[in-house]
Each structure stands twice: as C-alpha cells, then as structure tokens.
Amino acid sequence: MTVSQKSAAIVPQRLTTARDGAGFPWILQDVQICSDLLTIVANFGYMVGIGAPGSQHTAVSSCTPGAWRGPHDYNACPFVRDTGMAEDRIFASEDAGSEPFEFNEAVAEVFPDMLKRSIPGYAASILTIGSLARRYVRPETHCFDLGCSLGAATIAMRHNIPGPGCRIQAIDSSPAMIRRCRKIIAADDASVPVDVIAGDVREADIENASMVVMNYTLQFLPVADRDDMITRVCEGMNAGGIFVLSEKIVDDNRVIENLLVDLHREQKRRNAYSDSEISRKREAIENVLMPESLVAHEARLASAGFNHISVWLRYFNFISMVAIK
What is the pLDDT of residues 259-272, one digit of tens each? Predict the structure, then answer.
C-alpha cells in the first residue's frame, strides 16, 4: 500500500501537543493520524528532532513529561519508532531526468524523504522558524508561508505564535502539494487559523504581515521576477517584522563552489542516493532551480527596504537568512 493509499484509508485525527518550559512541543498523542502528517512531523525535525541519515520515524506518545528539550536531546526520550515512509526513488530509473523537474503527485508523495536526504540543515530551519515566530509575530497580524509545499513552516509558526488574532496564509502553486497540505493542517489541533491557498506566490496579497517565510521557494521563480517579489514582501510587512529566506546558492569563489558541490554530493551518497540518481536529478532540475550568489540576495533584500539582514544558517551551499524591516 502506498502512502497515498494509506492516507486515503485513514481519517485524519487530532494531533495533540504539550509544551515544555521553552515552548517546544514534546509529546505527540493521538498517533493514528494520516501518513502525510506522520512523515512531515517525524522527518522535518519540527517536533521530534531528526534521526540518523536514512532512518524513518513516526512519533509515539511514550515520552516522560519534561524529559526532552528539543532535537539536541533527541536520544534522551524514546518516542520514535520506524514507519513505512515513502522512499524517494523518483530518479532511480534510467529514463528519469529526461523531463524538467516538477512538484507533481509523485514528488509530493516522497517529499519528506526527499527533503531529509537532499537538503542539509532543513530540520534546523523549520525548528528556527518556530522560534522566530515566538519572538516576532504580533497580535492581530498576518503570517505568510510562500511556497508552503506540505506546510512544515506553517505548522512551525502555528504552534509558536504567542498572541491572539493572527492568521496564516500558506500558498503553493502545486495542486499535489496543496491537497496534502490541507490534510496535514486539518489534522493539526493548533488554534491559529490557516488558509491553504492554491496560487502563484507572486500574486499573493501580502499585508499587515509580521512574519513571512520563503523556504527554498524564490529559487524556483524566474530571476527577472525576484526583485519585484521581495519588494512586495517588504512593502506588505509591518515595521519590525521578520522575513525568513532559505535558498540554495552559488559561491562566488569557484574553488569553494566546487568543494561545496562535491561535499553535498558525498552527503547524498551517504543518504543512499546513487551517483546515477544524483546526476539525473541534477539534469532534471538544472533549468528549474536557478541559484544565485549570497551577494545577490543581500543586495536584493537591502534594495527592497529591509534594515537588518544576516545569514543565520549555512550548510554547504544551502543558506537561511533573516531580514528585519
């Protein structure tokens, strides 16, 4: 039975979380929820930390209250068990890679595994988005997850927004991602309202925003549209609001760029991707994902009107930045 079939067969139930003194969810109950929610929670590291490369986990409620304090203490509490998460084999066949990469149903089905094995530091970015929401989201404001895919950043914000009257818009142009995201949000019991919207992020009506997230989204937009996109984000944000931008970049130093690409390729091999799979995906995504340099991103953010800009995370050629208006 595939993950899609399992999801269809299980009525999404309520996801209940409790929080420790630092505000992190530490217990997951009502574990008979749809497979999509299990994989997104288990593998994005938002609630249960991140396991060893290649491991597959589902949350279970056997943690002693107060025993776990975040992913740095992952092994202190045995509340994960193996599950049959769909494995990313998109580029395993010889004819894969001949068509441009797209976020279709096949990709959506294996997306948590793809992210976990392909993007170093992804779990840390999701966890930190929650931390930033606690610090920057203000009452009676809006939050935006632009290019939400399965909704990991949305859930991170939703469980950490401290004040009343807030609302999140989760927007993505992929029908397959939106369908699964809606199931995941419906299974989550946090009280902050979420609008899951099928649409182009370039057409999002951004206003009264205290937090905006683009987690590996901008890189898929045409380069010519990126200045206007970031300007619109900044114009729609309130003073003191925070923008989180995560991207794959190209290093300006060719020697360093080659080194980082090689290190990333080595990591994907450790995560059980073959050389053929790595090469086929690179061919498929070459003209779909168009990375820029860190300097280009910094200049664009400054030009748009952000006052404080910094990289808070870098792992090989994957970065996450914060920009405060």
Answer: 999 999 999 999 99
Backbone phi and psi for residue 110, each to the nearest 5 degrees, phi listed first: -110, 10
pTM of structure: 0.78
Q: Which phi and psi (to 5°) does residue 293 adopt?
A: -85, 160
For the chain, give every residue range classified as CATH 3.40.50.150: 122-251+287-324
Both tokens of 48, joined, read 């249960």
Residues 124, 194 contacting (CB under 8 angstroms): no
Q: How far apart are CA 224 and CA 235, in angstroms?
A: 19
Q: What distance separates the 2 farthest-apart alpha carbons in the chain? A: 52
Task: For 233-288, write each residue's pLDDT tens digit.
Answer: 999 999 999 999 999 999 999 999 999 999 999 999 999 999 999 999 999 999 89
**Which residues are within 8 A (CB) of 256 and not within 5 positions of it... i.e. 6 or more apart?**
none
Q: Give the Å distances, CA to CA, from 270 to 30, 193, 259.
A: 34, 40, 17
Distance CA 272, CA 322 (A): 32
- Superfamily (CATH) of domain 122-251+287-324: Vaccinia Virus protein VP39 (3.40.50.150)
DSSP, residue by residue, 190-209: --S-EEEEES-GGG----SE
In angstroms, the Cα distances linking 163 to 61, 281, 298 are 28, 42, 31
Q: Collapsing DSSP states into helix, strand and coil, what is residue 87?
A: coil
